Inverse folding.
């Protein structure tokens, strides 16, 4: 006889496979004219510059009130991308920049569509086997000619296909514990430098990394635990040990890197901070 838990899991799997009972969040915008070549990310940079401050705090209320440009951009992404218009994305960096921006744009669309909310976890669904299910799983979007959810976009496309741990420092889930949302779009031409800079912040600043030299402890974002294999893999590719702290030391500022290396050498206590799912703004 099936347990209740196994029955719920079966229902979840069936629903994920068919999209049954899930809702598509419409862009409700007008697609922008595309340039002759490539993809123009200036509209996203303008939105970010208007609604994100230098610390990554988002003016969600203002964006929800004035969301026309965001919706128009999301409408554009619905039918333009590496799959539907491959000629516009000549390099892998062009593709990855597209998907990082698209994730952050759809996260923003999901927030403003359900505004006002205090957390992405406030978006509910009748089927809720875990926190955040309504926002990250049950909510669907049209992107690049595909109907998908945010969990699939992050894990099945961005992380799985591009295998770069720096991605975790670039995508933003609209929550206080997320990496900082940069006030500019990612672009293929500048992607490597932009990901390095995002990783430097993510590897150096609280609440993502805290080193207490007196107590000989290191506190890390849960992202470092959830995706430890990605950070360990990339640490090895950088010529380091398969160690999350080695990845952090590589990208951190000199001062933080020195403290992290002391922690590694001294086998200091490493713990992970409870994730704060409150919105990263107001």
């Amino acid at each position: 006889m099936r347990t209740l838990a196994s029955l719920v899991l079966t229902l979840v799997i069936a629903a994920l496979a068919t999209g049954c009972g899930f809702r598509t969040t419409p862009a409700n915008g007008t697609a922008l004219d595309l340039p002759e070549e490539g993809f123009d990310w200036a509209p996203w940079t303008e939105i970010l510059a208007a609604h994100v401050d230098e610390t990554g705090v988002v003016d969600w209320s203002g964006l929800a009130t004035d969301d026309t440009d965001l919706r128009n951009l999301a409408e554009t992404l619905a039918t333009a991308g590496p799959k539907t218009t491959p000629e516009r994305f000549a390099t892998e960096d062009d593709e990855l920049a597209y998907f990082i921006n698209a994730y952050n744009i759809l996260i923003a669309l999901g927030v403003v569509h359900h505004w006002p909310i205090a957390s992405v976890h406030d978006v509910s669904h009748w089927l809720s086997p875990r926190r955040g299910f309504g926002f990250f799983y049950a909510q669907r979007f049209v992107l690049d000619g595909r109907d998908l959810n945010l969990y699939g976009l992050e894990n099945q496309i961005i992380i799985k296909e591009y295998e770069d741990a720096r991605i975790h420092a670039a995508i933003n889930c609209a929550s206080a514990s997320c990496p900082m949302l940069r006030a500019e779009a990612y672009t293929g031409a500048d992607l490597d430098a932009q990901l390095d800079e995002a990783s430097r912040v993510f590897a150096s600043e609280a609440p993502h990394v805290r080193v207490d030299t007196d107590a000989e402890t290191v506190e890390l974002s849960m992202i470092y635990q959830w995706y430890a294999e990605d950070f360990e893999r990339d640490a090895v590719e950088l010529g380091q040990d398969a160690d999350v702290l080695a990845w952090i030391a590589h990208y951190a500022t000199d001062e933080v890197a020195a403290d992290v290396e002391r922690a590694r050498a001294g086998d200091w206590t490493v713990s992970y901070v409870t994730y704060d799912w409150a919105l990263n703004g107001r």
In short: The beta strands are 23-24, 139-143, 146-149, 209-212, 217-221, 269-273. The radius of gyration is 19 Å. DSSP finds twelve helices and six strands in the chain.
